[in-house]
Specification:
This protein has a 3-stranded antiparallel sheet. The protein has 51 residues and is of the alpha+beta class.
Length: 51
Amino acid sequence: MTVQAIAWSPSGAVRIVDQRALPDARIERDLETAEAVADAIRTLQVRGAPL
């Protein structure tokens, strides 16, 4: 099974799977600014290393 943790949303935003919710839920978030991406990294919403 392959899970894509990061992708482009139809609107052009970066779409991530919020790692903090796993394994209980799969929550996708659209990040539309560099600040939102930086915040997602700081708050551990995305992994900093490859799977």
